[in-house]
Amino acid sequence: MKYEYVLTSSLLNRAPIGAKTSDFKNYIINLFEGSHTYEMLKNEDIIILNVCSPLIIAESVIDDVGNYEKLEYNGKTYYYIKEAEKIDIVKVKNRKFSSFKNEYGNSCIMNLECEKIDEKIIDTNKKYQNELKPFNRADSLLVEIAVLYSRINLVSETEKIKMMEKIKEYANIIKKVGSKEHMIVLNKFKEHIDI
Ligand SMILES: Cc1cc2nc3c(=O)[nH]c(=O)nc-3n(C[C@H](O)[C@H](O)[C@H](O)COP(=O)(O)O)c2cc1C
């Protein structure tokens, strides 16, 4: 399953990043060439995955003007997001580069295999594990599908076509980032509409 974190490291830079994990111990992160985060992590093996609210995740793509706190690891300073609920400190075990073609030409992806080395609860008001879970896009997309589904028979044919396009788009994302449980519910919708 893929979770959305705010990634920080040894520079005052924050970026929303998706990390795949099935056990919250091992993570796969794919970074697309062209961002400061990509450059920073070419030579940096310690990454902080900040579990943040959707508001902070969204803000973090706009700029790096966040509230940062410092921590020391192996004699080096790293930054994390002050408003994070929890941080997972992960170490890069393996770094691979591959290229792919898109509409703009050739581009590079850096694939990072990471392992958790430490974690810290920042928001100590949140004591339960489910309050400290990172954001998953499939949750909100599944609810969006439910909203569209509830309205589909109340709208014109043209509107219905547009709604079906959105449902298909959301379903494709859920397939990439969701869990088995998300897929079970998605398949229930499939019994009623042509996704
Ligand atoms: C929710 C979300 C998830 C993202 N996931 C990734 C990702 O997995 N890999 C990536 O390269 N970029 C991802 N991005 C885009 C980066 O966040 C973006 O390139 C970065 O913030 C640019 O800022 P920087 O130049 O300071 O690194 C994501 C953006 C959002 C909003």
UniProtKB/TrEMBL annotation:
Pfam families: DUF447_C, DUF447_N. Residues 3-121, 136-183 form the DUF447 domain. InterPro entries: DUF447_C, DUF447_N, Split_barrel_FMN-bd, UCP018747. This is DUF447 family protein. It comes from Methanococcus voltae PS.
